[in-house]
Specification:
MFS_dom, mainly alpha, Growth Hormone, Chain: A, MFS_trans_sf, about 0% strand, 19 helices, 2 domains
Length: about 400
């Protein structure tokens, strides 16, 4: 009995699916950094190009909203491809969309076509939808005890995306004169192709026949209390992050602050969003997912409170930094909670459903924030943020009343 317990051979069947864990997680983190630059390029240039090409100034921000809609719509098809053909096929389909997005955007700028540019940003949203599943793929590569850490390590790649994206824009935007940003989009297509090469070398555990068959109906899974809590907290984290981040630069401008101040605030916001991922997984392991998510909600509430105390540049920067850290704890924690809501054969369907709900709601917030800000002001936007936070608090309290959130047997 003792020999059977200590023999390395006894552990081999369980360990072998995870033998490429370190390599896979590292590659997925690098791919996250490369692919994350796609979204930053769209956010940094989309409104400017939209304003230049749009038939009406009212449509200037439509390409960015279409990017968010594309991300929401494509999460479910990405999950279907992953379930039927494997995650790597889904990854390569997504990076293919990323390459096409860059090429079509460059063509749209060269020909002055606003609607072609909108097609490009929709495809960019499809690329971003597939990137969302990188964090769950990393969890597949690790044994259960290390899954939160693997998930958060991949999310940490977003820190480098926050550097790569702006630099890509800075160094390429004027290369192809007089077509501003056309070279940027070509460079973004090249970065997507590099990401595809890297992802093709990731070795994920093989799909099982049970996974292809699908498992329980989604309606049954979605009624689980912990899935409801995971979705609510994921929705609130991403909704408020996008809601406040979208409004903040315009609010700073309305308060007489410079564009440079706004750019620096957003840069530190992105760093605050992804920087904590280097240790969020460890916090989840040590303190539990519910406490980390609750801390995230409190930090987002603190961000809104900080914004209500004044309109100096320091108040805006503090709001954006607290918002970034709060988003990280809330979203990474909610993602880790999703891992406890499904059986192995159900993972791709459940994860894509979660992302569809989260990013579909985020698209709603993206359309809403600008109108609320210009009509009612920055303070109203901040006060409204407390309503979703209260909803997340109620969901967490409900979970606590059910004793503790346990994985399905």
């Amino acid at each position: 009995m003792t020999h059977a317990k200590t023999s390395p051979l006894a552990d081999l069947p369980e360990a072998s699916p995870y033998r490429f864990e370190r390599s896979n997680v590292l590659k997925l983190a690098i791919a996250q950094a490369l692919a994350g630059a796609n979204a930053i390029v769209v956010y940094a240039t989309g409104a400017i190009v939209g304003h230049t090409l749009a038939p009406s100034p009212l449509l200037a921000t439509l390409p960015i909203s279409i990017f968010v809609v594309g991300m929401a719509i494509c999460t479910l098809p990405a999950g279907v491809i992953a379930r039927r053909h494997g995650r790597i096929t889904a990854f390569l389909t997504g990076t293919g969309c990323g390459v096409l997005a860059g090429l079509i955007a460059a063509l749209a700028v060269a020909y002055g076509s606003f609607w072609l540019f909108c097609v490009a940003t929709f495809l960019g949203g499809g690329y971003a939808a597939v990137v969302l599943s990188f964090r769950f793929a990393a969890a597949d590569c690790a044994p259960p005890a290390r899954r939160p850490r693997a998930l958060s390590t991949v999310m940490a790649g977003g820190v480098f995306a926050g550097v790569i994206g702006p630099q890509l824009v800075t160094y390429t935007m004027d290369i192809w004169a007089p077509y501003m940003f056309a070279a940027t989009y070509l460079a973004q297509a090249l970065v997507a192709a590099l990401s595809a090469l890297l992802l093709s070398s990731v070795r994920l555990p093989a799909s099982t026949t049970e996974e292809a068959s699908g498992g329980r109906p989604l309606a049954v899974i979605a009624r689980q209390p912990r899935f409801i809590v995971a979705v609510v907290c994921g929705v609130v984290s991403y909704l408020l992050m996008n809601f406040l981040m979208t409004a903040a630069p315009l609010a700073m401008q309305m308060c007489g602050l410079s564009q440079t101040d706004a750019n620096l605030g957003l840069q530190w916001h992105v760093i605050a969003m992804y920087g904590p991922s280097f240790f969020t997984g460890q916090l989840i392991t040590r303190f539990g997912v519910a406490r980390v998510v609750a801390a995230g909600m409190l930090l987002i509430a603190a961000a809104a409170a900080a914004g209500l105390t004044g309109v100096d540049v320091g108040h805006f920067w503090l709001t954006l930094v607290l918002l970034g850290v709060g988003w990280n704890f809330g979203f990474v924690g909610a993602s880790a909670l999703v891992l406890e809501c499904h059986r192995p054969e159900e993972k791709t369907r459940v994860q894509s459903l979660n992302d569809f709900l989260v990013f579909g709601t985020m698209a709603f917030g993206s359309f809403l924030s600008g109108g609320l800000l210009t009509t009612y002001g920055w303070n109203t936007v901040l006060w409204l943020s407390f309503i979703p936070i209260a909803l997340a608090g109620l969901a967490l309290a409900w979970a606590a009343r059910l004793r503790r959130i346990q994985p399905e047997p």
